[in-house]
């Protein structure tokens, strides 16, 4: 994508390059891009809306903030669609049966119309159990946390 082009990125993030030059460079890149991955609904070229958006960022000296703006927009659209982000971190990868059961349990906590977007990660330092991040809630069910808690209790009583 355009955002990952090292030449374009170096020009956009360079504070010594004038805004007009940045805008011209980005506009040229958009024209050369043809069908962009950001605008797959269009058959030829980049959409006018996308071009206007990028030009607005360029005019206001905010091209270096493009990734953050796109991420924020993605979060807004996800919320609009009723998607609830959930990340499960375990010591080892979950098998399909455990993952399906976990998905069923987590879906039970959602409101009607919400959709679970489940992502899994592994972190061997957890030793066992799991960390659950769902929406704005966090639950630490890891063996590591339990061991740390017991160690702290032992130190306090000694």
Automatic annotation (TrEMBL):
Gene3D superfamilies: N-terminal domain of the delta subunit of the F1F0-ATP synthase
One GO CC term on file: membrane
Localization per record: Membrane
Family per record: Belongs to the ATPase delta chain family.
Record's keyword terms, sorted: ATP synthesis, Hydrogen ion transport, Ion transport, Membrane, Transport
Top-level taxon of the source organism: Eukaryota
A Gene Ontology molecular function term of the record: proton-transporting ATP synthase activity, rotational mechanism
Organism: Petromyzon marinus (Sea lamprey)
Name of the protein: Oligomycin sensitivity conferral protein
Database matches in InterPro entries: ATP_synth_OSCP/delta_N_sf (IPR026015), ATPase_OSCP/dsu (IPR000711)
